[in-house]
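Apologies for my clumsy wording, but could you write out the amino acids of a protein and the tokens describing how it folds?
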Amino acid sequence: MFVLDERHGTKEHTTFAHIDRYLKEGDCLVINNSRVIPVRLYGKKMDTGAKIEVLFLREMKDDVWTALVKPAKRVKVGTKVSFGDGLLVATCEVVKEKGERVFSLQYEGILLEVFEQIGDMPLPPYIREKLEDHERYQTVYAKRDGSAAAPTAGLHFTEDLLEKLSKKGVNIVPVTLHVGLGTFRPVDVENIKEHTMHAEYFHISEESVNMLNQAKQNNERIFAVGTTSVRVLESIFDRERKKFIATSDWTDIYIYPPYKFCAIDGLITNFHLPKSSLLILVSALVGREKILQAYEEAIARNYRFFSFGDAMFILKKKE
């Protein structure tokens, strides 16, 4: 774990198991408890038998889903794709850009159970090995089904480590953001301001909001586990009243320099891909030059990047 302490202008290299050294009683640790569902499916076009890969992203309304398709050019309006020998049939209703499609679904029973039966976990493309144990791509605190990718900063935590932090007086505050296209769609425009974030569903309870507002009132620190948690917190913070608001909604918040953070005092995150909105968010927190210098140092020290890689803990300067 690379600890970048903006408050004191220091950098440290340690292991994630020692994160308790940087947290104290009264701190809030905000975790995204979304669960990944096995929504990568391999099917066949019903008219030609051509193989089609579909990553279902989110349900827009009952049994109507947006999805990413490969190869997209084979799927036009009216195309029917069969999965699991007909257990699920998806009919293309709308053709969108960059491989995105809208499907209506036909199946018997409960859709999540159908996904569990015939779907694969949507691992990142650079991981080739098939995942036999689906729990290996879940955080230990995952509870609410709905993500098309894991909130991977949370993969570093074990139940024992969370219990250790709780005993120390650190408040574990759950939120939910179902990870979809907004999180992992690459930024492919020259001017980052022109990038469009896709909306993702989030929920935060009254109980969680009360803990966060209490922390703000007591001048305690709030640390987000992962960029998805940051996006929830910054979406629900009322800047005029200086308080968090409990709600369930969709957010397309896009955080890029020179964004002024109001909700958090720091961030636990991974090392992100170039040209990603995640790297841009982290750059907004500490500045582009500092983050690129830190990444160069991490590379020199053989840190592992991306979903199953190492961690960075950023402690933000007080405004």
